[in-house]
Amino acid sequence: MNQQRKAFSSRALAVVAAGACAALAFSGTAAAWEPTKPVTIVVPAGTGGGADQMARFIQGVVSKHHLMKEPIIVVNESGGAGAQGFLDVKGSKGDPEKLIITLSNLFTTPLATGVPFSYKDFTPVAMLALDEFVLWVNADTPYKTAMEYVDAVKKEPGKFKMGGTGSKQEDQIVTAEIEQKTGAKFTYLPFKGGGAVAVQLVGGHVDSTVNNPIEAVAQWRAGKLRPLCVFDSQRMPYNAKVTSTMSWHDIPTCKEAGLPVEYLMLRGFFLPPGVSQDAVNFYIDLFKKVRETPDWKEFTEQAAFNQSFMTGAEFVKWLGNAETMHRELMEKAGFLATK
Amino acid sequence: MSDLAYLFHGFAVAITPFNLGLMLLGIVLGVIIGVLPGLGAANGIAILLPLTFTMPPTSAIIMLSCIYWGALFGGAIASILFNIPGEPWSVATTFEGFPLAQQGRAGEALTTSFTSSFVGALVAVVMITFLAPLIARFALKFGPPEYFSVYLLTFCSFVGMGKGSPAKILASMMLGFALSAVGIDIVTGGLRLTFGFTSLLKGFDFLIAVIGLFGIGEILLSMEEGLTFKGASARINPKVVLETWRKLPRYWLTFIRSTIIGCWMGITPGGATPASFMSYGAAKKFSKDGDKFGTGVVEGLVAPETAAHAAGTSALLPMITLGIPGSPTAAVLLGGLLIWGLQPGPLLFAEKPEFVWGLIASMYLGNVVGLIVVLSLVPAFAAILRIPFSIIAPVIVVICAIGAYTVNNSMHDIWFMLGFGVVGYLFKKLNYPLAPMVLALVLGNNAEDSFRQAMLMSGGSLAILWSNWLVGSISTLAMIMLFWPLIAQGLRKLVPSKPDKLSSEQPVD
Q1: Do B409 and A77 touch (CB under 8 A)?
Q2: Residues A189, A166: contact at Cβ < 8 Å?
Q3: Which of A231, B251, B484, B491 could make an SS bond with A263 (beta carbons 3.0 to 4.6 A apart)?
Q4: What is the separation of C-alpha B211 from the centre of its chain, rounded to a whole number of angstroms?
Q5: Is the interface score ipTM higher than 0.95?
Q6: Assessment of whether the complete model's pTM goes beyond 0.90
Q7: Which of B53, B346, B408 sits opposite A77 (nearest CB)?
Q8: Residue at B218 is within a domain
Q9: CA distance B105 to B109
Q10: Do the Cβ atoms of B335 and A52 come within 8 Å?
Q11: DSSP per residue over B59-71, as a string?
């Protein structure tokens, strides 16, 4: 079956190549860059997590729709809260066949651990999507709105337990932001993965979480969890009913619920430093094609992503703002590494 | 009753030629993945996952879960023949399996381990079939203190397992804990014990340590002892399977106990690794031949293999019903479900019954197919030991190096592996037991996390380990296991020589 597919793709390729030659003859510009060996996507996180799922999803979509001649290889380099993967790509100067998919640890890991890297060490390619954060409580608790819950937390400082993924990473930063804005005080419990966090909440071992939609959706649909608000500037655009009564769109933003906290997590791609603009353009084009497939639409709707797509100067500006925001939030919360 | 109808429908789905072919392919791939140390089922499945996007989800999960069964079976092969556990849950298999192989009983050891695996898995599948919804709820009761009490029980049931001086056991275990602490500290988010070296950021992966300590260490020892495998004299006996089967029923109690431990650990989800250690420890404590453990006792091989497979199989249950992975492999399968457009969780049984029951049916069939495949190859596997050491040893070293590299895609790990090889050699020369160190390295991290989470919850009070009947009974059981030697002594004093009296009262026939 594989061989068949290969044969098919090489035929398709011949057609594309012929087309490209024709285009070249007409336009007279230099040939566009293309990878000449398998493309590696480094995942600076473990297998099965959100970034890993997206990388492997893209790998599958690219091969299913023959979007690229060379195959994609996904490797997980999760050591040191992702520092291992980032340092690997930072060190692969000028290698245009090595991409890294990021989560918020692009900003948080260097700040929290002092390992030296930042977004400026990489060649930014594109933001594919932003992952949302939702405030969840157990459906058996009486809290119907974000403020009801926060008020209850305020009354008994430290009694309410917030579960989250990792330490001094996105979940704890959101928690710290809630604390700074409202004066409430949580006991933060770090776990290794988002799925485990959701189950701890169902089991009543923690009182609330800020899980990403995809981590908690199954439990929500089963009536075990209740979403209170989403940490975005506007509601999620997905109108299809997820439970019998609610869609993602029906969840109010935290701001309209009276909790002025916003946080989104980057799902973007970077190349090592010193890679040509031609290579960057190739991947931008590739990701645009990925985003046009029906598979992507289904995937993003399941995960309820914020579908922002950014490249170039706009993306760099966003990164600069995001880094400043993380630095300020983490400084206020006392999460910065001691020098 | 409608569930049973679904199950039979599931068999019908699984038994199509296309799916049976995928099953066979999955098993063979899985065995290879299991034999190669370091690759691991989780990695193997992750690599093959994108290939399955073009298949119907049921076929895809059948193939991927068969890779999982194959890897569970295959993990035992390298452990028994070369003392290299390819998977974390195979470590306890080496304790009895490798000495057996050295005595020329590799065929017997392999048959025992495959059969035990099969029994463990089969019981777990039956349990999933009939008790799934009931049991799924039980997993929800596990918070940080419950997890910690399970790890505590594993450690406690393992204490006193190595022979020789308790001080050496303690030293070995503490070294394991220290090594497991290197890298990121999940509770504070800071780095520990990395001394500014970026290669230490990711810590010491258990597999690197095990490949080095056991695999490379063993080869260093063999080199010193004359460049031959002790098991090389093994005669190849095609009837070994039947002969071994005749002996196995006498270990029925070990089978039952190990299956219970395994199912329980798989659901909770402590996972296959603690299950195998705990079951081995329990078998050693309760066996008549407890003192001989470590020298090649079949019973000590039955215990970890049965438990590991019962756990490995029942670990799929929380994955399907709750959407929480019971093992790293289950975590990757979980990602697969999402990509195929299925949503694991409490509603999967109701919404996609044909998928769930197809998967369960494939568990039955996959295990039967797997057992037939591996058993028919037992003589061939055992014959590997007849290959001259000078040929096979370099091959093993290369495979170990590839395995060590694959874990993190890092060259440093190969150097660490060689370093661990030297440590393993020195440990054996100086009579330090390796098992406590490996146990601490495997579970140290999880035990530490859950302990610190529990302490955060309770504000530092140990009373949380006895805060409800569940955690309380596990903690108490752990304490009983820890002090069992003392308790046993006390009991003997209270009830002096009761067995003697009985035997003297009863006529000997």
Answers
A1: yes
A2: no
A3: A231
A4: 15
A5: no
A6: no
A7: B408
A8: yes
A9: 6
A10: yes
A11: HHHHHHHHHHHHH
Residue A221 Cα distances to A141, A213, A224, A227, B139, angstroms: 17, 11, 8, 11, 19
In a domain, B395, yes or no: yes
Residue A122 has pLDDT above 50, yes or no: yes
> Can you give the residue range of the structural domain that contains B291?
2-482
Torsion on CA atoms B22, B28, B30, B34, rounded to nearest 10: 180
Structure tokens at A205: 């071992």
Which tokens belong to A7?
Answer: 């044969």
**Any idea which residue has 């005749």 for tokens?**
B246
Provide the domain count of chain B: 1
Where residue B232 falls among pLDDT bands split at 50, 70, 90? low
Taking the CA of residue B140 and the nearest CA in chain A, the distance in Å comes to 5
Q: Name every chain A residue with its beta carbon within 8 A of the beta carbon of B144.
A: 189, 205
Could you identify the residue written with the tokens 């009296």?
Answer: B501
**Residues B441, A117 contacting (CB under 8 angstroms):** no
In-domain check, residue B106: yes
Q: Find the CB nearest A189 among B42, B332, B453.
A: B453
B494 within domain boundaries = no
Cβ contact B343–A217 (<8 Å): yes
The one-letter amino acid code at A172 reads Q
B192 membership: H or E segment, kind and range:
strand B191-192
Distance between CA atoms of residues A121 and A142, nearest Å: 48
* Pick from A136, A41, A44, A138: nearest CA to A83: A44
DSSP class of residue A306 equals B
pLDDT in tens, A268-309: 999 999 999 999 999 999 999 999 999 899 888 888 999 999
pLDDT tens-digit profile of B388-439? 888 888 888 888 888 888 777 788 889 999 999 999 999 989 988 888 888 8
- Given A56, A63, A81, which is nearest B339 (Cβ)? A56
Report chain A's mean pLDDT, rounded to a whole number: 87
3-state SS record for chain A: CHHHHHHHHHHHHHHHHHHHHHHHHHHCCCCCCCCCCCEEEEECCCCCCHHHHHHHHHHHHHHHCCCCCCCEEEEECCCCCCHHHHHHHHHCCCCCCEEEEECCHHHHHHHHHCCCCCHHHCEEEEEEEEECCEEEEECCCCCCCHHHHHHHHHHCCCCCEEEEECCCCHHHHHHHHHHHHHCCCCEEEEECCHHHHHHHHHCCCCCEECCCHHHHHHHHHCCCEEEEEECCCCCCCCCCECCCCCEHHHCCECCCCCCCCCCCEEEEEEECCCCCHHHHHHHHHHHHHHHHCHHHHHHHHHHCCECCCEEHHHHHHHHHHHHHHHHHHHHHHCCCCCC
